[in-house]
Amino acid sequence: MTSTTSTPLSGTERLRPHTTSAGRTSRRRIRKDLLRSRIAAWTAVLVIGAFGMLPIYWLLATALSSPEQTFQFPPKLIPTEITFSNFTALAENDQLIKYLVNSLIVASITAVLSVVVATYMGYSFSKFRYRGRRSLMHLVLASQMFPQAVLLVTLYAVFSSFGLLNTYTALVLSFTTFTMPLCVWMLKGIFDTIPDALLEAASIDGASRWRTLHSIVAPLAAPGMIAAGLFAFVRGWNDFIFAVTLADKEKQTLPPGLVSTYIGEFQTAWPELMAASLVVSIPVVIAFMFLQRYLVGGMTAGSVKS
Q1: Three-class DSSP category at 267
Q2: DSSP assigned state of 263
Q3: How far apart are CA 92 and CA 99, in angstroms?
Q4: What is 89-301's CATH superfamily?
Q5: Is 163 left (phi over 0), alpha (psi -120 to 50) or beta?
Q6: Is residue 172 a contact partner of residue 251, using CB atoms and an 8 Å limit?
Q7: Could you list the mean pLDDT of each consecutive 10-residue stretch along the chain, which spans 306 residues?
Q8: Whose CA is closest to 288, among 217, 221, 214, 233?
Q9: Taking a C-beta distance cutoff of 8 angstroms, is the pair 237, 254 a contact?
């Protein structure tokens, strides 16, 4: 009679079904956790997106509505009657076009002046060592700590003594006062990433410091310079308090111009104001669309020093 002897299972074989079951349970738990995290992330994106886009939608809806629809209660999210008369009225307002030209002039000059001065100052702070350099750097940084309204009285008195009130010069200099410090530190961080060996090689080849900066360093720092210029342009484009204080109606820019045109003591033309606000924001949006990659590259270029 033949007897069969069963081979005892090893410990690994005895635990294999339990291990497989535990692994499946662990994988299910991981999938559920990933699904929950994705749902939470998309929910947060939708909430934040709605929070950011709802004012823009309301601006557009008000611009396409008549005054009667604007003041009706309860308000409607979707206008029942769409009108473009608020936009056509903008082209007929010569004073508004004057404000637009003033904004373009002041913001463009502010951007160019801020970038030029910040380029030389940032390069000096980054690549040269001299007495008082660190103190000057801290002084430039400390200028950002003062509220703008505090310096407004001082700037008004200075410009008044030099006869610069109600001029483009007063607006450009006041805007540059607050845009230049950030531009300086932004460009200094970018210049820090440029290796000194490259500058030494240029010096060995006979290039002067002036030519090294303009022919070698400046092209490498172009994304940062564009980012700084865009920041200065937006700062000059959006300013209100300095433009309304230092300039008269002939030299004022768009922010105070829109307020004086559409906001009165007893009534506010909200549809026309929203239409004008939408139109005047288009140049900045277009600038961001075309210069977005330079802006991102310029803002992050100085974050890591090589």
Answers
A1: coil
A2: B
A3: 13
A4: MetI-like (1.10.3720.10)
A5: left
A6: no
A7: 49 51 72 83 87 84 79 76 80 84 92 92 88 85 79 88 90 89 88 86 85 86 87 88 87 86 75 84 80 63 50
A8: 233
A9: yes
